[in-house]
Amino acid sequence: MLSEEGKAAIADYGYADYGEYLFYLIEDGPASTAEVPAATDETRVIRMSTTTSVNDSGLLAYLLPLFEEAYGYTVEVTSAGTGRAIANAESGNADLLLVHSKSQEEEFIAGGYSYVLPGFESERLTFMYNYFVLCGPSSDPAGAKDAASVRDAFAAIAEGKYPFVSRGDQSGTHTKEISLWPEDLGITVDAASVEAYSDWYTYSNAGMGVCLTMAEELGAYILSDKATFLTFQANNGAME
Fold it and tell me: 66, 36 in Cβ contact below 8 A?
């Protein structure tokens, strides 16, 4: 649920620095015209549980100071992979959940951990999107750039046993990556499923920013969200 000011801030984020938009707003997405209630001693702190992809993109560091200054709240952010971010909310340690894995979000709702905000039809509100990108060394030994599809690129990486860094943290990005490998490899979110591929597959169990740094150091391929990758690349990352 965004104010019109919040939507405008997200729409503009990143373009001046990167020449590309880092996030895209859903057309006719949910927006609020209601007045934000004043912060009180009991409500001043808002605990947000989110993904490392959102946090590492710099979006929250850009948005939250605007919100806090305007309304007097303090937002405390905890970031982890989507699975852990959701578990954090399930444990009652978050007031707001901002993640990007539809199936896991729907399980959270089905478990009775959320509620419908007044004026809305669902607990789950989709208001922006991002893209996944397959990144790797500029030499591109697997020929990923010339692959007919991203699935073909993943198959080429596996066939050639080219280094690959996986989030390995049950995040939305990790879940998406798992869906792109050839089925006969048997790769799942379970670390045991990739033990046979340890000579080229790194199961990192880490956040997006850390994994991008690791992939660059290893000359490895990696699946990333576009926003975090562009932020990483702008800070002297050499991957493409």
Answer: no
Q: 228: which DSSP letter?
A: H
Higher pLDDT, 159 or 61: 159
Which whole-number Å values give the CA distances from 4 to 7, 15, 22, 69, in the listed order?
5, 19, 18, 17
Cα–Cα dist 136/199, whole Å: 17
- Statement to judge: residues 30 and 82 lie in one domain: yes
Range of the domain at 116: 4-129
For residue range 34-60, what is the model confidence (pLDDT) as tens digits? 778 888 999 999 999 998 888 888 889
- Whether 8 and 125 map to the same domain: the answer is yes
Same domain, residue pair 99 and 35: yes
Does 2 score more than 70 pLDDT? no
For 52, the enclosing helix (H) or strand (E) is: helix 52-56
For residue 45, the tally of other CB atoms under 10 A from its CB is: 12
115-140 burial, b if ≥16 CB within 10 A, otherwise e?
eeeeeeeebeeebbebebbbbbbeee
pLDDT higher at 239 or 200: 200
Are both 46 and 117 inside the same structural domain? yes
Reply yes or no on whether the pLDDT at 219 is more than 60: yes
Q: Which is nearest to 10 in space by CA: 127, 131, 125?
A: 127
Q: Write down the pLDDT at residue 163.
A: 98
Q: How far is residue 155's CA from residue 113's CA, in Å, rounded to a whole number?
A: 38
